[in-house]
Amino acid sequence: MTADTRELVRSTALRLFRERGYAKTTMRAIAQEAGLATGLAHYYFPTKDHLVQELYLDVNLEHARAAQAVLDGGGDLTARFRAVLHASVDAFSEYHGFGAEFVTVAIRPGSAASPFSEDSEGARSMGLHLYEQVVAGADPAVPAHLRAELPELLWLAQLGMTLFWVYDSSPGQRRTRTLIDGVAPLVGRLVRLSRLPVLRGASDDVLALVRAVRA
Amino acid sequence: MTADTRELVRSTALRLFRERGYAKTTMRAIAQEAGLATGLAHYYFPTKDHLVQELYLDVNLEHARAAQAVLDGGGDLTARFRAVLHASVDAFSEYHGFGAEFVTVAIRPGSAASPFSEDSEGARSMGLHLYEQVVAGADPAVPAHLRAELPELLWLAQLGMTLFWVYDSSPGQRRTRTLIDGVAPLVGRLVRLSRLPVLRGASDDVLALVRAVRA
DNA sequence: CTGCGATTTTGAACACGTTCAAACGACGGA
DNA sequence: TCCGTCGTTTGAACGTGTTCAAAATCGCAG
Question: What Pfam families does this protein map onto (chains A, B) (predicted)?
Fold first, then answer.
């Protein structure tokens, strides 16, 4: 495993993904563009999925970088959640069109690029960490009984939002933006209301359910 | 288009899907098993996705059939929603294992088997109709201001639940059952609470958001 | 420098989904 | 009966992701 060759394959693949999209970036094209034999790409990346995962990692890094600026700036839960979600759409934006193809690959259970796969451990913990910061840094503070589970729920919400984005063919994915601007205040409001006696039962049920399902 | 040949291809494909799963059911195997030339399967079903969609339709019919018995029996929103969800998991159950592969195909935007595709109009309206009945027949009645939008939201919840099921590798998909048993009462409770002044604002926001996003 | 095992690289080969030009066949009109 | 047309059927061919035996190259012990 020479790092140089691996990196050459990786960068060539990502460039072609950007230039041609997923389907038209064949393993043969990657190898040829890099001046290598067809089989060599498979030596460093067992399947095409593994190259998609590199893209997934790249986008997540970009997202984390952009989100960090926001997270350092304070704000309430709604504002922080909303900003991080918008940053996610921004990071993905240049891939809409064939982005759909990538998410399709990523969502396949067993795929290396799946957010739940072992191979995606890095990207996943990075994403979760983002939402831990969203919650931890919120002012006013998030109610204590929600602080443990909320980050993962917000991260899952981001995955759902990405799925929506994939299907969103409105110009500039305006509907996804609208969804974010609607969901973030709603989540903020429900978190605030969860302290009230009427809703305390429901929010406890949600948390119990999350724990039960995870087990 | 002779109906006989088409049906022969269809039934052979569905049988092989059941016996071998998605990946091992090649277009060549379907044609060979049916005693036809390779290309003929493509004459009746342009892509393999279209054959998966036949399976999707089959499962939806089975689900509708099973759910109907429940829907005719009355009950409150929680019970009806819960029963219909369980019936959905039942209908899918024999496909878990390679069911994941099918849902993967179905979720791809542009795929004929996508629940949002034109080709799936039949299966989609059938599913929506189920949840219209869930809402319309609930006793006590669902608050009037929710009656219009709730069926589609419940249908979307079913899609999400199916997605969860795909990833659920617990024995017998117990975690999905747990999720259903937790989510249904929660939805029932929130619908009831939505009448209260504190939550009336939030529930109106949800409905406004749904309408805004759809537009 | 030589030899040899391990690592890296090659490119032909395989099975797949899909396409398509050609062949076939049924059926109605002359 | 023959012909022509149109719907059906055939199977070879294409490009794909992936595999793999073989070749080339490297690293290092002697």
Answer: TetR_C_23, TetR_N
CB–CB contact B109 A116 (8 Å): no
Gap from B2 CA to C25 C1', in Å? 14
Per-residue pLDDT tens digits for B7-23: 999 999 999 999 999 99
Put simply, the answer to whether B213 touches A100 (Cβ < 8 Å) is: no
Same domain for A27 and A128: no
Distance of CA B24 to the CA centre of its chain: 24
* B38 and B140 both lie in a single domain: no
Q: Which of A108, A175, A189 to mutate to test the interface with B (most CBs of B within 10 A)?
A: A108
- List, in sequence order, the alpha helices (H) in chain B: 3-20, 27-34, 38-44, 48-71, 77-93, 99-107, 121-136, 144-147, 150-167, 174-193, 197-214
CATH number where A34 lies: 1.10.10.60
Q: What is the pLDDT of residues A109-151, one digit of tens each?
A: 778 888 888 888 888 999 999 999 999 999 999 999 999 999 9
Q: Which of A110, A186, A213 sits opposite B205 (nearest CB)?
A: A186
